[in-house]
């Protein structure tokens, strides 16, 4: 019977949990649309050559027909492991049919052949937005990303998310100003700051990259700068390093921070230790953590990539910027710890009590009319005593039951109030109409 | 550059087309919920043993990690080729946590390793609803399915769909009444009636199944019965065959047809040639075709399966019934023939005209406020002459542009009317607020 059990890393939810997931996804989608992002989906598979150009090959699932035949494709296909690589391919493929700057959102599942580990998913949702320009992309989009992330996440029934900002140009310019050339190696080590601490970071910079003690200290000091206002500018300047790329990065980060003034205090901070692993980031980088639950890692992240999408014209590339929300990581964590309470496990707002089999035709007529009026309605499946029928509705979180008769009555199972109702005018009260989700503690 | 091209059978849409797909899927989902179906999703993969027990092995895509290692699973996995088989596995797995009858809907992509062929998809959406009972499932659910199908499809901007009903018990009982035992073989041949015609069907029944001329004729006559009222009862009885299973099927079909009285004339018909290929159907079967476009085949189908889901208790199984809407087949066909006109390629309802770079901060403030009020807003990406900016908005189907100033103005690009507007009160007119889809001819 093992074939019936769960498969590690491929989560499946019960209806109430799936309703919570849908609730979150719909809120996210709605906000993406408010900001003017248009939807696309890409196919689940990409040619292996496309996937391997940007990803870690160990994570890729390849697919093939169980019985391959002469019709077999020349090239191998794999399931996509993120939505950025397929999106870059999509933009190249459809570039003559798209309007630039192209703002798109994409909410799909992705697959990664990770080792079994708690909190690691092999199939999970990503919610991505990206803006891609033709030739040029204003820094104002760098500022739009954290604002949008905040707006999306602040309305969800999840712990508060703090968004951290940095800029790769600032870091790279700083390192170059110190005469360090292997920029990405420094980044990789600085990125471990939160995990392994300052001393070990300095140690690694000296032992692995042969930095001087002074330079290693300066790299550390830069990585330790955090601020929720513009004070980071003076702190960087105090370190006395000069480089044009650093100045450019500092100016961009300043512009982004200024634009984030519209957000409530505490929702955003500059954190110069944030580097993000991906090679293709070239400017702004972002990452968000749930306050009080930082140990689960980033729940959203992204950045600017000026050279990811290849172009026919060398002089005119497709610079882009985007962020991704890891909704499965958030939801899996909260559901796994029972931190979310869903008010029901069905969309049904009212269940019609079925007194006997003869009444079924009338029940169907009532249901037909209520549904026509936009009220999610069900009929109890068999005649049974009313107490049992009401109990069943209550178990599933259905807020109302309907008693047929010359004068129909509706009972609110939360308040116990029962009163006459007409199929042509009755409406569930707003607070009982739809699923509600409560974050029990955080 | 071949890696950038499309992959046969894996459709990808442009933003306007994806918006149309989302529009259809949301209407479908909403109606499923009105009828009291709760959402679930199942993982994309199933153990191969689960898939092979119900499917055609040629169609299955197996997946494996590019670099398998010691951590490799004992059992092979494949991508699901429908949503019924995963749902049956889900019900068995979670049966102690579900409420029965369990009404669920599931809207997900499925994958089939089909040969390349026009109109055949290898990755496509299925929209499924099913009801599963524990021990017993009332025939009233058999009637709910075609009513729901009609309600869902009639509201979509697609050609009218006619739903055809039949009942496997009626057919099986009739054949058994004639002394024919290889029931499924007869079904397989009768199912070809529309394709190959009456003469060849009779020929096959005689040559392949060795039926007598009289019995073959009776099977044909039964298969030719069609009616949009209850006249099919008399027509079946006239054929003079008696069998308890036939009586039972006839009664069920009558009950379903009676309940469908609430639907408009012409939306439904009994068609005793409909058999549906799947072995597991045991009673009602359904199939829907788009009027005027019958050649693309069924766009929705389903039926009752009393024995698909295995049970621990031999005396108490999980009888089920369900239908599936093939939205990719419908949409791919309509889009491929340019039969659908979408009003826009972005959710943006109003675009703010950007006079110069200095005005960007104010533009962001206006956008922030309009979005806060639920209006999808974008800012033109660079200062340019107003004509160009308006042209760009028009190309993407954005209905309004916003001119900042002491007295802000809004221009409706459809009507040409321009008037003063306040960021605190302005609303797009209802007819321009959202995407509209027009079926151009059908």
Please characterize this protein's 3D structure.
2 copies of one chain form a homodimer. Chain A is an alpha+beta fold and 442 residues long. Chain A folds into 2 domains: 235 residues, 2-Layer Sandwich (BirA Bifunctional Protein, domain 2); 94 residues, Anticodon-binding domain (Rossmann fold, 3-Layer(aba) Sandwich), CATH 3.40.50. Helix content of chain A is 36%, strand content 21%. The first copy, chain A, has a 9-stranded mixed sheet with strand order 1-5-6-12-11-10-7-9-8. In chain A, a hairpin with an 8-residue loop joins strand 11 and strand 12. The radius of gyration of chain A is 27 Å and the shape is elongated. Chain A starts with 14 loop residues before the first helix and ends with a strand. In chain A, 44% of the residues are buried. The mean pLDDT of chain A is 92. At the A-B interface, helix 1, strand 1, helix 2, strand 3 and strand 4 of A face helix 1, strand 1, helix 2, strand 3 and strand 4 of B. Strand 3 of chain A pairs antiparallel with strand 3 of chain B, so a sheet runs across the interface.
